[in-house]
Design a protein that fits this description.
Layout (H helix, E strand, L loop, with lengths): L1 H13 L3 H47 L11 H4 L2 E2 L5 E2 L1 H4 L4 E2 L4 E3 L5 E3 H4 L4 E6 L7 H14 L6 E6 L7 H10 L7 E4 L3 H11 L4 E5 L2 E4 L3 E4 L4 E6 L4 H21 L6 H7 L8
Parallel strand pairs: 6-7, 7-8
Antiparallel strand pairs: 1-2, 3-12, 4-5, 6-11, 9-10, 11-12
Length: 283
């Protein structure tokens, strides 16, 4: 009896219980069903997605085959948004009447010198609004200004870059910024100063937007403004667009020629003496 009992216990321990076998089998069947369902799901939705793409392509091709189909014309005048000195939207037709005399302003250039509207009179100038830590298009705008300076070498005009972040852009920072673009400072001013003066110039004078959304994030225009030799705002261009850049160059040449024609021509000293009856000594 003792031997039979011992043998029976050994055989039971060597073979796994039937309940464990059944659990394993059920788990295996469940996994197979899950895998099959997932395959069907992926296949179905992949086919559906492919069908949607096919339909979209066919719609595009259908419209592309229509002769004479062109994009709807956009009224550029309706795209202009004009702001007053408080940053409020105003009537674009009234605000865009040009030329318009600018109100006097006084700022400081990269060398610490006072530069304002009066100092800039006598020559036409192109202005931009940027800041040295700008993560956006400011570097491209300033690069285009450098290109303009090179392309119009010999033309008598000025370039003016006004910072929209004057609390951080000191004259020292502006000097480094100018050096980074190898700007010729003989006819290019980098201006900073009181934020209220700058924002009033942009909003009130040029009717363009500017606002500090948060520290380091300043919304500003990417337009180039053009001012004539008398201090009148006469035009603006999106100079990052090539066609407008060419138009800007033409406009500056015209204004520079006009200012030279209007400026009085000084007579030679010998002519002045002869007219006054004085005789010049001959060596």
């Amino acid at each position: 009896m003792s031997e039979n009992t011992t043998t029976t216990k050994k055989s039971e321990s060597e073979s796994p219980p039937k309940s464990l076998e059944m659990k394993f089998m059920y788990s295996f069947i469940v996994l197979l069903w899950i895998a099959a369902g997932a395959a069907v799901y992926v296949t179905f939705f992949s086919e559906e997605a492919r069908q949607q793409i096919t339909n979209a392509d066919s719609n595009l091709n259908k419209y592309a085959d229509v002769e004479g189909l062109e994009p709807a014309e956009v009224d550029e005048a309706q795209k202009k948004i004009v702001f007053n000195s408080q940053g409020e939207v105003v009537d674009p037709e009234a605000a865009n009447e040009l030329p318009r005399a600018l109100e006097p302003f006084t700022l400081t250039n990269q060398s610490g010198e006072t530069i304002g509207l009066e100092e800039l009179k006598g020559k036409p100038w192109v202005g931009t609004f940027v800041f040295t830590s700008c993560p956006g298009p400011c570097s491209m705008i300033t690069g285009r200004m450098k290109q303009l300076q090179s392309d119009l070498e010999g033309v008598d005009f000025n370039l003016v870059s006004v910072t929209v972040d004057p609390k951080n852009d000191t004259p020292e920072k502006l000097t480094k910024y100018a050096d980074a673009f190898t700007a010729d400072l003989n006819n290019w001013q980098f201006l900073t100063g009181d934020a209220e003066v700058i924002y009033e110039l942009i909003r009130g004078g040029f009717k363009m937007p500017v606002a500090e959304m948060k520290p380091g994030d300043i919304m500003h225009t990417n337009r180039f403004v053009v001012v004539d030799a008398d201090g009148n705002y006469v035009d603006s261009f999106i100079a990052l667009k090539d066609d407008e850049y060419f138009a800007l160059k033409k406009r500056i040449r015209e204004l520079a020629e006009a200012s030279q024609e209007d400026s009085p021509v000084s007579e030679p000293e010998s002519v002045g003496k002869a007219s006054s009856g004085e005789e010049s000594e001959t060596p």
